[in-house]
Specification:
- This protein is an alpha+beta fold and about 425 residues long.
- The chain has helices spanning about 20-30, 45-50, 65-70, 80-85, 85-95, 115-130, 185-195, 215-220, 255-265, 285-300, 320-325, 340-350, 405-420; strands spanning about 5-15, 35-40, 60, 70, 100, 105-110, 130-135, 140-145, 150-155, 160-170, 200-205, 210, 220-230, 235-240, 245-250, 250-255, 275-280, 350-360, 365-370, 390, 400.
- It has two domains: about 5-205 and about 365-420, 3-Layer(bba) Sandwich (FAD/NAD(P)-binding domain), CATH 3.50.50.60; about 205-360, Helicase, Ruva Protein, domain 3 (Orthogonal Bundle).
- The strands form five sheets. Strands 1, 2, 7, 8, 9, 10 and 20 form a seven-stranded mixed sheet that branches. It has a six-stranded antiparallel barrel with strand order 12-16-15-13-17-18. It has a three-stranded antiparallel sheet with strand order 3-6-5.
- Helix 1 (about 20-30) runs parallel beside helix 6 and helix 11 crosses helix 12 (about 340-350).
- The longest helix has 16 residues, at about 405-420.
Amino acid sequence: MHEGYGDRCEVLVIGGGASGMMAAIASADRGRHVVIIEKNEKLGKKLFITGKGRCNLTNACPESEIYDHIVTNSKFMYSAMKRFGNTDTVDFFEGLGLRLKTERGGRVFPVSDHSSDVIRTLENRIRALGAEVRLYNKALRLLISDGVCFGAVVSDKYGDEYTISAESVIVAVGGLSYPLTGSTGDGYRFARDAGLKIEDTLPGLVPFNVRGDVCGELQGLSLRNVKIAVTDGSKTLFKSKDTGEMLFTHFGVSGPMILTASSEIKPSDYKTGLMLHIDLKPALSPDELDARVQRDFKEASNKEYKNSLSKLLPAKMIPVIVALSGIEPYKKVNVITKDERLRLISLIKDFKLEIEGVRGFDEAIITKGGVSVKEIDPKTFEAKKVKGLYFIGEVLDVDAHTGGFNLQIAWSTGYAAGCYA
């Protein structure tokens, strides 16, 4: 028999990601005997790649603004955020010796810019509190009888199955995004087996596929200080309040603004045909931009049109804008008509791309959908139908914009469940 057969603990945490580690810490801090089951070779595998490896661990905006950034079921998060909000997250990590900094848009990072330091801080706390971590261990199914969850069947690193009984079981296995980190939808299976409803899942915070060749020509170009909108022909589905960054790729567009836009659009919207509108010069009104272009044209009056836009646009963008403007590339700037010039202004203020859809789960930062919040107590995160069974983090039907908000959901839900379990 392998060690661990038929063993017991007070709190079993399935999944050693952000929410799972926080739940384990909150429980162990209250003197509970905690075991974490993690199928990967290390804790925090997805955390390691968040924020391009820098780990944007929360957002420093006022607490009241956080709910504006939670796209799905923000009211469900009130109680957990009040108990452990963004300022608590900062205090928690700094109290454990991790130095933090706040960047543009309120995004909070470790000073070192290394996500590994965030993970190490959590691991050290887990160890200090005496919680047990079992790597290469995978939960196969929950043990539920008469509306009570009392443990799980687990396979160890040798593939042998064993039973671990627990007073409380916390499911923190993530969703479907980045499946290589182990997020393979196990939590939805556990929830279904427990009789809970699952809201349809789809990729969230995900790049757009774009029709045509334009993005391929602009591949690798990053734009800063632009504004975007997404329309469906009759109405605006998303409009950025502030300027931000985006990136052209071989398949379409990505970057923070695009990911945020994707989180606001419903799957059914894509069927109607969507248009992405990019304002390349949002700081200038059309009239101000026209005055600026006239100044540039005056300075370059003897140049050909295709060589006259270098002060206005990135080099890679110029051939595309020249082609789309319909102005003859070799035309001397001093004979460009007012109508032609206004066409150029219009194109710069409203550069349009046709959206075909979104990329898949392997490129999505989060999963939209998941365990229905109607099934879960928002104060404790215990399933209403099954005593002793908790669901936290990305497995729930709660998601937010990019900028540290999704990790804050993980910390808040993990802390609440860990306190009550």
